[in-house]
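User: Structure please.
Assistant: Input sequence and predicted structure:
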Amino acid sequence: MTKKLEELFGFDQSEGQEQPSKEIPTINETRTAIVEIDNAIDKINEALPAVRDLNSSDDELDDIAKKATETFENLTDLGFNVDSRYAAELFAVAGTMLGHALTAKQTKLQKKLKIIELQMKKLKLDQDAAKAKGTESEVEHAEGKVMSRNDLLEILKSAKE
């Protein structure tokens, strides 16, 4: 509420409510909490059975897309061979079948991208946990060098010769 409303209705902010005390955790407490949560997640992952049949769902989506594409081709051929007043509906259904094939392929790609995204997040959490523990991470880091374009061209010329 605004101060004017509080004054108008005679409310006092401190009378009706107790202000909860919010303790802000320190950085080290936060890091230890994150490491504990990560360890708990790892224990849960070990306890749960491994996810199986990821490839079978890919195969099923490929099969759906293949069947929808074949049906599209059959309906298109049939649409060219029937009377024109019936062809429009056949072509509409054929277009729907092609849409189903496209949806199956998109679903498969989205699933793979989601898996990759989750793997990258897990890797990032593992790296953060390794930094918090002070151990070296398993991922190698490249070292770079700042140079001008001309310096780079000279290095490339000398390497070519």
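The longest helix spans residues 84-133.
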